Amino acid sequence: MSLTGKLGKYRTEVTNLSGAKFDRYENIFKLYTQSTDGKEFYFYNILNKIEFPENMNSQFFDLYIVEGRLPLTTVSYDLYETMHNWWILYLINKQVLKNQFYVKGGTQLEFIKPEYLPGIFTEMTNSTIFGNRHF
Length: 135
Fold this sequence. Notes:
This protein is an alpha+beta fold. Helix content is 23%, strand content 21%. It has four helices and eight strands, in the order ββββαααββαββ. Helix 1 (72-80) crosses helix 2.
C-alpha cells in the first residue's frame, strides 16, 4: 500500500460511496483504497492538510463580528448557509482562535466572501497535486 505512489480517486468519483457536496473538506483530497478479503476499503491520508497563504488578495475577504459565544459550525452557517465550511473559518483565523472551536462574542473573524469560495475550492484541490502525486 502506498499513499504517494499512485493516484487515488476523489470521493465524487467513487460510485459506491454517498456523494458529498463540492465544498466539503473531504472532497479536496483523494481517497486511497485497500483490498482485504474481497472487500475494498477507502481511506484518506490523514497527513494531508490545507494552509492558506498569508498574501491572499484582500478582495476575497470580509469581516464578521461574532455575536455571543458560538461554535464555528454556526458561524459558518450564518455566513455560507452551510455548517460544513467551519474548517475554512478556522484555517483563516487560527491565529485568533488558537485551538478553540467556540468563538467568544465580539470576536472579529475574517472570512472568504461566498462568491469566491468555488474558485478557492478548485485552487485548493489543484494545489494538492504535484507530478502525478496527490498530497
